[in-house]
Inverse folding.
């Protein structure tokens, strides 16, 4: 004799997953890698995350001494991506 | 026991893999021995375009650069000295500029003028054909227009490497 719960068919709710997949396709259709020669605007000083390297280094020093920890301050940002 | 449908993990991974592969670029690039793609580009300050075919029979050093690229700015005056080290009828330097704005090129070259031809490719059409992946990129072509050697990026040591290559080919 079969147990009762075996006869219960699982409700198929694949819709949200399909929707997530489909929306990712739609969003990514506009994605294109930035070519090396298209980085002129990214190379402008205004696009740099740390506009002043010395000021940034000093801020980082103060922050790391207050937090007693350092690192993890880097992030991808502007720049020409040269060399 | 929940009767809500849970898709297998591999189905959930599909969108993730799709995202990862969407950002992957082609890895092929021009290699030694490949014929250099032909181009004919307008010259900065000149009326007639310059074609690569016009330089057949000479060693040609092709450099892709932009005024906003730090290593490129460093390399251009050094190429001027390099051009002067070899006879112009046997070795020529061609610098293909990829700035979107011509004013930026003029502004940069006003302070560092060069005598070799500066060609303009603001749309990056030629750069795309030459499969440029890094700025700057440069190539040494033999007298038949085939790639002898390619340099990615620029370092001071490249100048001596290029000179050595040119010397050995001119012998």
């Amino acid at each position: 004799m079969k147990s009762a719960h075996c006869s219960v068919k699982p409700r198929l709710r694949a819709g949200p997953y399909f929707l997530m997949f489909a929306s990712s396709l739609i969003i990514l259709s506009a994605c294109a890698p930035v070519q090396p020669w298209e980085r002129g605007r990214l190379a402008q000083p205004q696009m740099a995350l740390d506009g002043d390297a010395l000021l940034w280094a000093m801020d980082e020093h103060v922050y790391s001494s207050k937090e007693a920890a350092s690192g993890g301050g880097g992030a991808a940002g502007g720049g020409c991506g040269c060399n | 026991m929940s009767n809500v449908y849970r898709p297998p993990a591999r189905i959930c991974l599909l969108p993730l893999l799709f995202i990862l592969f969407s950002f992957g670029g082609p890895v092929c690039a021009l290699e030694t021995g490949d014929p250099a793609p032909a181009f004919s580009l307008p010259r900065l300050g000149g009326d007639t375009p310059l074609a690569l075919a016009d330089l057949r029979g000479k060693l040609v050093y092709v450099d892709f650069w932009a005024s906003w690229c730090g290593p490129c700015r460093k390399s251009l005056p050094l190429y001027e000295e390099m051009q002067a080290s070899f006879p112009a009828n046997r070795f020529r330097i061609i610098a293909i500029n990829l700035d979107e704005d011509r004013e930026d090129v003029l502004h940069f070259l006003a302070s560092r003028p060069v005598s070799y031809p500066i060609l303009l490719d603001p749309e990056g059409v030629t750069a795309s054909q030459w499969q440029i992946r890094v700025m700057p990129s440069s190539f040494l072509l033999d007298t038949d227009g085939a790639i002898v050697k390619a340099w990615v990026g620029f370092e001071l040591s490249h100048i001596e490497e290029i000179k050595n290559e040119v010397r050995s080919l001119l012998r």
